[in-house]
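User: I'm curious what two different proteins look like when written out as structure tokens. Can you demonstrate?

Assistant: Sure. I'll show them one after the other, since each token string lines up with its own sequence. Here's the first protein:
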Amino acid sequence: MEFTAKQISKLIKGEIVGDKNARINNLSKIEDGKPGTLSFLANNKYEKYIFKTQASVVIVSKDFHTDKKIKTTLIKVDEPYVAFATLLEHYKNLRKPQKGISEFSYISESAKIKSNCYVGNFTHIGNDASVGKNVLIYPQVFIGDNVQIGSDTIIYPGVKIYEDCVIGDNCTIHSGTIIGADGFGFAPQQEGQAYKKVAQIGNVIIEDNVEIGANVTIDRATLGSTKIKKGVKIDNLIQIAHNVVINENTVMASQSGVSGSTVIGKNCMIGGQVGTIGHIKIGDNVKIAAQSGISSDVKDNAVLFGSPAIEVMNFKKSYVHFKNLDKLNKRIENLERKIKELNAEEK
């Protein structure tokens, strides 16, 4: 499928600088741009490539200016990354959607599936489950008894959703993710006896517009619900324990783990390999750098780094010192030797 720069600019409300009739039929990274492709520049680190890219059209910020000659056609927008994401979504929607219910799937007689859904091969949908309109359920998905799934949700192959869990509208759940497995609850008994398993009788509630990456595990609550609020985005390979609450529009990068009963606020940004202890509260608009360890409550708007994590400016000031600890130790040893020598001379 082919588009012109003019058509694209209308979709993203941009201003064309160059050939409005430039044609594109594919997308590319700016450093690998080829004729007939569309790319974008959102990070100044890649600005050098705009002068030599072969991409026919590049989306840039309205603030982008240069005196150097640029061969490619530019489309200027307020936020290039958001504009490019809009185009990717439009491109994705042009693909022919899957439809129909496979004869090789199992759907309980008491389950309810609304119109225009797709159910792939070897999918299991349990008793009294309900599936909203326009839902895509790919092959080998397990949906347990009493599960509720809202409209326009996509569930990729191999996802497992245990009984009683709730999934909202317009959610995306990627392959291998398990929602509603037991939380890690074991009661210690007398010395020498095995731990006693605590029954996990709650569920998981995932609200609207949530995206969950591949191979994520979200445990059901011991009592009540583990809650993922609307707009949350969760990367691949993340563990969320029982009774955790992650509030609206928080994003979390790969390999992070959230311990039981922790509450994370709204609009937080959590880097990869971050770990939290249980039963703490992280405020709104918090930013946590990758590989940080959170061991206590965090106030709103904090920016943290390190393990145990501290305010990022304090960490940077401390880092100046502890990266030079070897040098400082040698200086102290030299000073101690000189003091001993002076003491010996006085005697």
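Here's a second, unrelated protein for contrast:
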Amino acid sequence: MKIGYFDPFSGASGDMMLGAIVDAGLPLKTLREELKKLPVGDYTLTAQKTQRGGIAATKVNIKVKTRAHSRDDEHPHSNLPAILDLIEHSALPDDDRRQAAAVFQRLAEAEGRVHGVPPEKIHFHEVGAVDAIVDIVGSVVGVRLLGIERLVCGPVRTGMGFVTSAHGRMPIPAPATAELLKGVPTVGTDVEGELTTPTGAALLTTLCDAFGPRPLMTVAAIGYGAGTATRETPPNVLRLFVGEVISEEEEAEERDEVLVIEANLDDLSPEIIGYVLDRLLAAGALDAFLIPVHMKKNRPGVLLQAIVEPGSAAAIEEIILTETSTFGLRRTRATRRKLHRESADVTTRFGKIRVKLGRLGRKLLHAAPEYEDCRRAAAEFSVPIKAVYDAALDAFRR
């Protein structure tokens, strides 16, 4: 599954999110073409590389073409019903329309609760309305175009101080931002200024389905979206990780915990050590082996190691303590990542041979004939064991 992880260590805004998406690999031309499906034509969308606190980032700029009108004129896209109607009648895919509308609905509801008016009565400033439409719809479209199937977000930084808005001087986080971030992990900082805007908060809380640490993922791309403020500390950027994550079910199948039990031996007969290894394997050790070591008093010795499942540890330790000369042993807990194992029977001129298969997700990485089957067939047909191995692999490939 392709996953995106937003890291708002310096907050988030609509243009920062859009910049991070473009910086992560979405061509601006592709984004522009897709946004043409939205009937808002009085703007230009550009992007440029910039620096914020020593980090190279992409700054997306939306320039609205002004038009002559009186101060009392209302922009056609300045209220929630008009914006929802515009999105509904666009040529965008159904999921894009649904998500973009949900972001605007959430934003208007938060503003409405703060100012004590119904969401449909909330009005956006003329330039702000077009900015918000492009930022929000562009972010929704951009996530889809990057192929991201799931979004997760880290704790959101909000800054401190006051911000001046159309409603006067407001505390940070702005009341609408605070309303939108209810129930979401947030971090207060001593940075003066508005780190997270209402538009950024609405996008994150609508599009992301989880908040917390970055999940186990293989990162393929990282994007940095620059905000307008040129603040150096912390760098005014929003970071986006894009990569692959396996499902919880697959992860549970491929990882487990084992114990590594070991002891140093320098005064034990090789015959006894061989006998001990056989006993350990018979008692349920996943593996048991010897490593040559140079010990104190210049004595050559061996390190005896056994890898066991936790439930078998007591029996394995008892064998080592009773059958060897050691006065103690060490136990270490380890995480083991495994290929998913399967077995397939193949028919050869030497009879049926089992082949062990190792898969990573759905990808087949290894195929190995079973040794015991090959040894039996080699003895039965009086042929080299390598001939049986080769025949089994040829049959499997066919």
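A detail about the second structure: Residues 252-337 form a domain with the Alpha-Beta Plaits fold (CATH 3.30.70.1380).
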